């Protein structure tokens, strides 16, 4: 009886604002109360819903098939030099040039393993002269490999700085020197240049 007229007019509006019925259909022109999701978000939500309907066994089988296909693409890329499917450590123009720089030259380090086997056999023979020759040969091989690696690394670093001034060249020289320790036919990715051919 003593309530003010303003409070009586305000009360129904407040009740409407606070009480919402989620079962009532929303008017087409009324605001949604939430932002419209982006297309990428909506697509990812649809994919997640579609994936949840798949059983765990089917999902594991699908993952195995995808992994097998990815490994097969990577294997073919290592043989052909296809940049798209190479491992991350082999990708990029800098790494490709470093590989070509090494593959176009003869390096003593690539014969390290065969020479190590020969030296090991000589050192096992119970003849003092052969053991001394094996030791001397071992020292000569190590010195030659170190000198060849220093010269190759210096020349490659200089060439990379000239050809790729704005590119990230970090680790490229070490990557190339590790490649020289592998025999040419066993290198991966497979050599794409011949000996004597300029990269």
TrEMBL record:
InterPro entries to which the protein is assigned, alphabetical: DUF3043
Disordered, as annotated region: 1-76
Comp. bias intervals (Polar residues): 41-54
Keyword terms of this UniProt record: Membrane, Transmembrane, Transmembrane helix
Highest taxon listed in the record's lineage: Bacteria
Biased composition, class Basic and acidic residues, residue ranges: 1-13, 55-76
Record-annotated membrane-spanning stretches: 108-127, 133-154
Pfam families: DUF3043
Protein name: DUF3043 domain-containing protein
Originating organism: Streptomyces cellulosae
């Amino acid at each position: 009886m003593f309530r003010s007229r303003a409070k009586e007019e305000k009360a129904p509006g407040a009740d409407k604002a606070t009480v919402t019925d989620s079962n009532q259909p929303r008017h087409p022109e009324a605001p949604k109360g939430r932002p419209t999701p982006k297309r990428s978000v909506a697509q990812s939500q649809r994919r997640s819903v579609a994936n949840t309907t798949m059983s765990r066994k089917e999902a594991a089988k699908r993952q195995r098939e995808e992994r097998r296909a990815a490994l097969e693409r990577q294997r073919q890329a290592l043989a052909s030099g296809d940049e798209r499917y190479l491992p991350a450590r082999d990708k990029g123009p800098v790494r490709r040039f470093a590989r070509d720089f090494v593959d176009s030259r003869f390096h003593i380090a690539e014969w390290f393993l065969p020479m190590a086997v020969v030296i090991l056999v000589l050192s096992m023979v119970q003849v003092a002269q052969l053991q001394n020759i094996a030791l001397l040969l071992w020292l000569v091989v190590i010195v030659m490999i170190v000198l060849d690696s220093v010269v190759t690394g210096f020349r490659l670093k200089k060439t990379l700085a000239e050809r790729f001034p704005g590119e990230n060249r970090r680790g490229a020289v070490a990557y190339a020197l590790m490649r020289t320790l592998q025999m040419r036919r066993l290198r991966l990715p497979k050599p794409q240049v011949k000996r004597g051919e300029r990269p």
